[in-house]
Every structure is written in C-alpha cells, then in structure tokens.
Design a protein that fits this description.
By secondary structure, the chain is an alpha+beta fold. The chain has two domains: 1-49, no CATH class; 51-144, GMP Synthetase, Chain A, domain 3 (2-Layer Sandwich). It has helices at residues 38-42, 51-73, 112-125, 127-132, and strands at residues 9-13, 20-24, 34-36, 80-90, 95-106, 137-144. The strands form two sheets. It has a three-stranded antiparallel sheet with strand order 1-2-3. The protein is elongated. It starts with 8 loop residues before the first strand and ends with a strand.
C-alpha cells in the first residue's frame, strides 16, 4: 500500500499555563522554531500560531485540493477557489468542537446548485475532513463568486 508521511517536531518547556514551545515542520522545513503557547490558543495570538490554526490551515488546503479534483473530474475545472477554515476550540472542555469551511469559487459552466453539490462531494473525499469526521462538527458553506 502506498503511503505518505510528514513530520513535525515540538520542543516544550514548562507547564501548560506559563510554558511555551517551538515547532518545526520537519518534512518541508517551511516553518522552523515557530513559537506556540497555551496563551496563543486562548488569548491574543500576538504573532504566534496554535494547534487550532494549524488544523484550520491543513483542513482548508486539503479541502481546496479535494474540491479542485472533484470539479476537474466533473469536467468543470475551477478558475479559482478561495477556502477559509475556522477551527473552534472549546476552552471549557479543551476540545476542538467545530470546523467551518467557507468556499467561494469561480467555475465556468457550473451553476450554484452544481457548485454546492460538488462542494459537498469534495468534503466527503477530503482526507482531513475524514480524519476529523465523527469527532468534530464540520460545517460547509459554498457559493459561486
């Protein structure tokens, strides 16, 4: 079976509330020594990222790829897709509860209903959606630009 693996590394110092760490996207090297702390999850990010922001980035980019594939295979390649993901962390339960995907696209030859149908099909095929499904409420909003 063919597989693909990617690695990230974290160095953490201290306890949850006052501690902090850095992470590297080791496989690509795109981000190195990126700061992360609990405060960046629950307060002002102040130029730092959080696991939830990284989940949102992973989900939005994966979904864009899946949607592009669905549209192309359906004979209506996208001219442009703009996808945003909003990942919600419930601070009381310390659980990611929701990811809202918003997608707007320019797809010649496709009407609003066809676009929404393709968007829903892509969400079902998206590997990150499939990893989250059953544990996180995934909401999808799709419209033509």
């Amino acid at each position: 079976m063919a597989t693909a693996e990617r690695q990230a590394n974290v160095n953490w110092n201290g306890d949850l509330q006052s501690g902090s760490g850095t992470f590297d996207l080791a496989s690509s090297g795109v981000l190195k020594q990126s700061p992360v702390s609990f405060a960046t999850r629950s307060e002002d990010p102040a130029g730092n990222t959080s696991p939830e922001e990284l989940i949102a980035a992973a989900h939005a980019s994966c979904y864009a790829m899946a949607f592009s594939n669905v549209l192309g295979e359906g004979g209506n390649p996208a001219e442009e897709l703009d996808v945003s993901a909003n990942c919600v962390l419930d601070l009381g339960s310390l659980k990611v509860t929701t990811v809202v995907l918003d997608v707007r696209g320019k797809v010649p030859g496709l009407d609003e209903e066809g676009f929404r149908n393709a968007a829903e099909q892509a969400e079902q095929m998206c590997p990150v959606s499939n990893a989250l499904r059953g544990n996180v409420d995934i909401q999808l909003n799709a419209s033509l630009a």
